[in-house]
Amino acid sequence: MKFLQTPIGPIDRIDLLTVRLPFLHPFAISSYAWSCKEALLLKVEAGGVTGWGECVADPDPFYAPETTASCRYIIQTFLLPLLEPGMTLADLSGQMHKVRGNEMAKATLENAVIDLLAKQQGKKLHEFLGLPARKIMSGISLGLQETPDKLLEAVTEAVAKKYHRVKMKIKKGQDIEWVAAVRKRFPEIQLMADANGDYTLADAARLRELDAFNLMMIEQPLSYSDIYQHALLQQQLATPLCLDESIHSLDDARTALELGACRIINIKQGRVGGLIEALAMAELAARRSIPVWSGGMDETGIGRAVNIHLQTAPGFILPGDTSETSRYFHEDIADPPVVLDAQGGIDIPPGAGIGVEIPAGRLARYTIAQERLYEHKG
Ligand code: OSB
Ligand code: MG
Question: Which atom of ligand 1 is nearest to the CA of 245?
Answer without folding.
Answer: 1
